[in-house]
Specification:
Shape: globular
Strand order of the largest sheet: 1-3-4-6-5
Number of strands: 6
Largest sheet: 5 strands, mixed, barrel
Number of helices: 1
CATH class: Mainly Beta
CATH topology: OB fold (Dihydrolipoamide Acetyltransferase, E2P)
Amino acid sequence: MIAQNYDENKVVLSGRLVQDALLKYTLNKTPILRFTLAVNTYYKDKKETLYIPVVSFGDLALEISSLVKKGVNVKVEGRLVNRKIEFSEEEQYKFIEVVANKIEVFTK
């Protein structure tokens, strides 16, 4: 078998919303939906909860904005991006978030 150089930035996560999603608009009136997803991971007998920030844009943001409330179980597909917020020259905050291109909402 010949090894290929294969890079792909794709992530699939499922979990519950930590709080209601926040819908905002850019100056160009593009919808932006942000929420934090609590994802449980297990190793041996230990459970750890990861809190993953998720953002979606445009039609997807509008379509699901009324459905994504605190505690709702969702599946997110998208890609990871690095973000940096600069408060001053000395102070900045770096983080990774998921830019979603597909979100499934699971209802009871």
